[in-house]
Amino acid sequence: MSITAEQVAQETLAHRRRRARSIARALASEYPDATCALRFSNPLELLVATILSAQCTDERVNKVTPELFRKYPTARHYAQAPRSELERDIQSTGFFRNKAKAIQECCRVLDEKYGGQVPRDIDALVQLPGVGRKTANVVLGTAYGIASGVVVDTHVSRIVRRLGLTEAKQPDRIEQDLMELLPRSEWIDFAHRLIHHGRRVCSARKPKCDQCVLLRWCPRIGVAEPLADGKPPGGRSKAGQKSQAGRKTAAAKSGKSATRSGKRTSARKK
Ligand code: SF4
């Protein structure tokens, strides 16, 4: 039996943590080998590939990068290349002018300040031009195995909202909620697995809820299609909205809440 939006609206932080961990376990069992789909052989390559993957599929990026990585083996090669040539080399990934600018400015700092190496520190990474928390988390988690946060891309933000693990819309706030719900040891793989799940099952347009291993923990918030067994679509009922409002009031009085989505977090670049 699946959980309802009303039940999710009333759950405590402890309950939500338990549900999040059950979801993480189910994802681990379903996608034990899920990892980043971008191909790379060192942190610099992953950093460049991640910048290229904005508004572009990983498949398209993987077509461009083998030749790109051969041509530009170091940060200095990117920094010193004629801008128009780099733009041509990455043109098929879209938004190539912005991406070429971001890659060159970022690589110039890497070359001048870090000897061409990608720093292993989130605070240093997010200071690089064109690098926000998502890119920094991808590089630290996937290239270095450092759990600095949870990667929040379009799949992760869509699915965790449907799952009722957050009500936030801003990636930084969604990430804060997930970091509060999951142990640090889950942060890296949870995002990889959710991204796989978003591509295979919980797609933006037509989620296959009847085939989903997360259904029992998912209130299907915002999903319009009913389940095949005739159960109504997900989403918050008026009763749920009222109970949510009540929960927020109670949480405000007690200082506790299931998520921190209403709480301001430090502003960072995307
Ligand atoms: S596919 Fe349906 S049940 Fe599964 S996570 Fe997405 S919305 Fe929830």
Task: Tell me what you see in this structure.
The structure is a single chain. This protein is 54% helix and 0% strand. It is elongated and about 60 Å long. The protein has 13 helices and no strands. Helix 3 runs antiparallel to helix 9 (133-143), helix 6 crosses helix 7 and helix 10 crosses helix 12 (187-200). The chain has helices at 5-10, 13-30, 43-52, 58-71, 75-80, 83-90, 96-114, 122-125, 133-143, 154-162, 171-181, 187-200, 238-254. It is an all-alpha fold. The protein has two domains: 5-30 and 152-254, Orthogonal Bundle (Endonuclease Iii, domain 2), CATH 1.10.1670.10; 43-143, Hypothetical protein, domain 2 (Endonuclease III, domain 1, Orthogonal Bundle).
Within the CATH hierarchy, at the fold level, what is the topology of the largest domain? Answer: Endonuclease Iii, domain 2
Give the cofactors and ligands.
iron/sulfur cluster
Overall CATH architecture of the largest domain: Orthogonal Bundle
The structural domain count equals: 2
Residue fraction in strands:
under 5%
How would you classify the helix and strand content by structural class? mainly alpha
Total DSSP E strands: 0
Radius of gyration: 20 Å
- Low-pLDDT residue spans: 236-257, 260-270
CATH superfamily of the largest domain: Helix-hairpin-Helix base-excision DNA repair enzymes (C-terminal)
- What's the average pLDDT? 88
How do the helices and strands follow one another from N- to C-terminus? HHHHHHHHHHHHH
CATH level 1 class label of the largest domain:
Mainly Alpha
Q: Biggest sheet, open or closed, and with what strands and sense? A: none
Described by the principal axes of the CA atoms, the overall outline is elongated
Number of helices: 13
Compute the separation of the termini in Å: 38 Å
Helix fraction, binned, reads 40-55%
